[in-house]
Amino acid sequence: MDCWSPSLTVDEEFKKLVIRMNPPRVTVDNAASRKATLIKVDSANKRGSLLEVVQVLTDLDLMIRRAYISSDGEWFMDVFHVTDQQGNKLSEVDVAEKIQQQLGPRAYSFRSLARSVGVQAASKQTIIELTGRDRPGLLSEIFAVLTDLKCNIVAAEVWTHNSRMASVVYIADETNGLSIDDPERLTKIKQLLLYVLKGDRDKRSANTAVSVGSMHKERRLHQMMYADRDYDMDDAKTGSTGERSKPLVTVENCEPKGYTVVNLRCPDRPKLLFDTVCTLTDMQYVVYHATIIAEGPEAYQEYYIRHMDGCPISSEAERQRVIHCLEAAIKRRASEGIRLALCGDDRVGLLSDVTRIFRENGLSVTRAEVTTRGSQAVNTFYVTDASGNPVKSETIEAVRKEIGLTILHVKDEADSKSSPPQESRIFSLRTLFRRNFFTTWGC
Fold it and tell me: Are 346 and 377 in contact (CB under 8 A)?
């Protein structure tokens, strides 16, 4: 005899049935636009639909040049204009097939968002999550502790923003390469890492956690930094430079239709749409309509949102919080400093040695991406000096000589030279599309 869970109402079960009967339909159109491939997605609406679609497209390394999103009611319809990383239309058939596999009816029937392209499987690794106050040399200390505890670092991603640090680290046992599941050993790892994180300056509580199963690293990092309140202003970090680099975010209510309208303008970069949609989702907002334009050096985004209960933003404090959280979502992935790419034979303790050399030469890591491909370590570090200023070229060359000139390379970052938008030129997509897409909403 089947049993109904008391926590599920008939309405909730009916909604699930509707979604199962109407999985996303994906259309890939390579002829409608001369500059981009159009990907159209429509299905029965559910919470998280927009994030799921954007996450899949982002994980496939596609650049979203334009997007038109509508999900008011029980149905959502999204249109994305995408290119590859070089700005070309998608000419390879397998790319279209991958999109269909991730978002099409068959995929939707069998998988959840956790099985998206960019999700890191952790069957052979243990996931350690770390949050705390950032400081020069912190990453070196973390990797040194893990190496001393006979842990091999298989992959990791580290973000820093507003004096806070969040990291997701995949470790395996040094001797057998398998995941670490001994409770006593895990407790020791967590305690020692927590001691390192706290140091003697952390005004907030540092945190270590062990995660199991599969996860999306970047999605998780957004959640961790949001929970750590990295959007709160740090008096020690504010100043003229920080103010000039702020994205332009405006939040106002659209009274006739009961929406809150969020306008955003900032220099464009990969994964920008993913970052903003993640944050709105984490803040428990639903995106009903949106228009995205990112065809030049700057990106323009406009969202029509409400709370999950259907109400718009109702206070000035909440309005300011949305602004600060979206600013943080954009800036926490921003790459400050010189980009160093390390590629060479992987070995246990490699990261501990490399980051120690960084620390001894006065370099501070602001962001890191660590991966292992077979026997090769493929790592990227963004570094500044201990004060957050650009590193002198002679210091970089000294570090390269110590680590290996053929292993560590300097990569140019053109995005770091982009000029920030000026306050006097706030862009409004509502004005641009007054006679087009948004006029039907009566705003």
Answer: yes
Cβ-contact 127, 146 below 8 angstroms: no
How much helix, strand and coil, in percent to the nearest 5, is found in the chain?
A: 35, 30, 35
The string of pLDDT tens digits covering residues 173-182 is 999 988 998 9
Nearest CA to 170 out of 182, 162, 161, 178 is that of 178
Q: Quote the CA–CA distance of 382 and 384 in Å, as a whole number.
A: 7
* pLDDT-based confidence at residue 334 (cuts at 50, 70, 90): confident
From the list 242, 230, 234, 231, the residue with the least C-alpha distance to 320 is 231
Question: pLDDT tens digit string along 227-236?
Answer: 999 998 654 4
Percent of the chain exceeding pLDDT 70 equals 77
Q: What are phi and psi for residue 251, nearest 5 degrees?
A: -135, 125
Average pLDDT, rounded, for the chain: 82
- 118/93 Cα distance (integer angstroms): 20
Task: Return the CATH number of the domain spanning residue range 240-331+419-441.
Answer: 3.30.70.260
373 burial class (0-12, 13-18, 19+ CB within 10 angstroms)? exposed
- How would DSSP label each residue in 170-200? EEEETTT-PPP--HHHHHHHHHHHHHHHHTT
The domains of the chain are located at: 10-115, 126-230+335-411, 240-331+419-441
3-state class of 256 per DSSP? coil
* Distance in angstroms (rounded) separating the CA atoms of residues 63 and 57: 8
Average the pLDDT over 152-171 and give the result. Answer: 95
Cα 381 from Cα 401, distance rounded (Å) = 16
Per-residue burial over 169-204, b if 16 or more Cβ lie within 10 Å, else e, is bbbbbbeeeebbeeeeeeeebbebbbebbeeeeeee
**10-115 falls under which CATH superfamily?**
ACT domain (3.30.70.260)
Tell me the whole-structure pTM to 2 decimals.
Answer: 0.84
